[in-house]
Design goal:
Largest sheet: none
Structural class: mainly alpha
Number of helices: 2
Distance between the termini: 14 Å
Order of helices and strands: HH
Length: 76
């Protein structure tokens, strides 16, 4: 199991990545809502699905890292 500092650094990186994905998701939702061009809306829907998949994976990894940190704190 990685050490505490490594896990905390990964958690910070995951949080930064989450913010990026959420910005992408907001952009995709805005384009779906406000775009007049059907092609833009279709691309935005694809972008939304991709962002949601990435966010799901990221949140799963975040929970795993948080769990590892909790285990380490319980062992010390």
């Amino acid at each position: 199991m990685p050490d505490r500092k490594t896990l905390e650094a990964e958690l910070r990186e995951l949080d930064e990545r989450r913010e990026d994905i959420e910005r992408t998701l907001r952009s995709a939702l805005d384009r779906q809502r406000f775009a007049d061009d059907p092609a833009v809306k279709e691309t935005a829907q694809t972008d939304e699905r991709t962002a949601l998949r990435e966010l799901d994976r990221l949140m799963t990894r975040t929970r795993a890292v948080e769990g590892q940190l909790l285990q380490q704190r319980g062992n010390t």
